[in-house]
Amino acid sequence: MSPERLERINAMLDQRQPDLTVCMEGVHKNHNLAAVVRTADAVGVSDVHAVWKNETMRVSGGSAAGSQNWLDVHNYTNTKDAIDTLKQQGMQVLVTNLSASAVDFREIDYTQPTAIILGQEKFGASQQALDMADQDIIIPMVGMVQSLNVSVACSVVLYEAQRQRQAAGMYQQPRISQQRRQRILFEGGHP
Amino acid sequence: MSPERLERINAMLDQRQPDLTVCMEGVHKNHNLAAVVRTADAVGVSDVHAVWKNETMRVSGGSAAGSQNWLDVHNYTNTKDAIDTLKQQGMQVLVTNLSASAVDFREIDYTQPTAIILGQEKFGASQQALDMADQDIIIPMVGMVQSLNVSVACSVVLYEAQRQRQAAGMYQQPRISQQRRQRILFEGGHP
Ligand SMILES: C[S@@+](CC[C@H](N)C(=O)[O-])C[C@H]1O[C@@H](n2cnc3c(N)ncnc32)[C@H](O)[C@@H]1O
Ligand SMILES: C[S@@+](CC[C@H](N)C(=O)[O-])C[C@H]1O[C@@H](n2cnc3c(N)ncnc32)[C@H](O)[C@@H]1O
């Protein structure tokens, strides 16, 4: 690996936020999967979680999501396993949800360890996700359309998290472990 | 039109922001066009502008962009005409641009009449757009990807504008003309 490339990758790793993550629950259109992962990378998310409703989706969707091999994609076959894992990691679990009872997404403290659940394109998040999550959040809308595109909703929330974390100095010092850094440098250096 | 529907449309019109707009310069993938228009509607944008590089794109793209008939789509065949029009309307013209000299998008005052230019998926905004615009703006990225999806970039900027305008009370009283309201009610009532 050239010194410039090593420096570039280390600079990226210095900004990674291992305690900010996204969980796609049944998102299956490839352009949405790709856009979610791309935005996640851009704000420093290091891990993305995906619940696949069936094998066909997992295979085709997994490659769209994995096209950025600079973050780790974790796959699940059901929602319970995914949310259990996120909770074991000490995350507050937020589910984006078009409901009058959901709180405005800007009221959340994203400097806490946070996982954001995104629902399926047509049907939204499942009842199980809503039951298990700590809080549901909504992005205000004042037009005639009923909902935003899922990758758009994801990025609006992630950039609010980025804003808060930047203000709190969380991009100022490296936050991933040495061990993880070495693994990613090794894998990235030998693609 | 039922009284409920009339009320719903009037409530939407009360939130419209006629001096906040988006101009797509050569954006041509249908899912991006649709997502841009959907997000624009959601933050209260009343007019969207589109520069088409050729006739085929205009026809197929125009229908994707026009799928929401609650906002007006203005079509151009070249960038100069579009930006001239926006400037005649007294807009500050911002172009989203991946350049080290662009300013952070959060530094802009979006309570001013504002047009945001979005560049083409592959090649970004044209030199002409950069030359004619008042300012270029960038959304910070700290990962390995080079750029965001165009509809994602659009929505991150539009929701910053929505945040500022909400704080300034600009959604508190109707801002479109009576004449325009009557036209939209008439058209929307007779689709
Ligand atoms: C197209 S929407 C799903 C619409 C579905 N009919 C529903 O009612 O949930 C797909 C996903 O985008 C996200 N989303 C879209 N608009 C949102 C908003 N305004 N606030 C929060 N999340 C939103 C949610 O994750 C949602 O599950
Ligand atoms: C995929 S990008 C174009 C990439 C192109 N290679 C370039 O260098 O401009 C498509 C459009 O999305 C917008 N965009 C994407 N990422 C952006 C960012 N970080 N800041 C500002 N605009 C961005 C711009 O409008 C850009 O023209």
Describe, in short, the structure shown.
Chain A is α/β, with parallel strands linked by helices and 191 residues long. In chain A, 43% of the residues lie in helices and 17% in strands. Chain A has a single domain, classed as Alpha/beta knot (3-Layer(aba) Sandwich).
Model description:
2 copies of one chain form a homodimer. The first copy, chain A, has 191 residues and is an alpha/beta fold. Chain A has one domain: Alpha/beta knot. In chain A, 43% of the residues lie in helices and 17% in strands. Chain A contains 7 helices and 7 strands, in the order αβαβαβαβββαβαα. In chain A, strands 3-2-1-6-4-7-5 form a 7-stranded parallel β-sheet, with helices on both faces. In chain A, α1 runs antiparallel to α7 and α2 packs parallel to α6. The radius of gyration of chain A is 16 Å and the shape is globular. The N and C termini of chain A lie close together (11 Å). Chains A and B meet through α1, α2 and α6 of A and α1, α2 and α6 of B. The site of one S-adenosylmethionine has 15 residues of chain B, from α6.
Number of strands of chain A: 7
What is the architecture of chain A at the second tier of CATH?
3-Layer(aba) Sandwich
Main β-sheet description of chain A: 7 strands, parallel
Q: Largest inter-chain interface?
A: A-B, 36 and 36 residues
Mean pLDDT of chain A: 93
Return Rg of chain A in Å: 16 Å
Helical proportion of chain A, percent range: 40-55%
CA-based shape of chain A: globular
- The oligomeric state is homodimer
Name the hetero compounds present: S-adenosylmethionine
Provide the CATH topology of chain A. Answer: Alpha/beta knot
Q: CATH H level of chain A: which superfamily?
A: SPOUT methyltransferase, trefoil knot domain
Tally of individual helices of chain A: 7
Unreliable residue stretches of chain A: none
The end-to-end span of chain A amounts to 11 Å
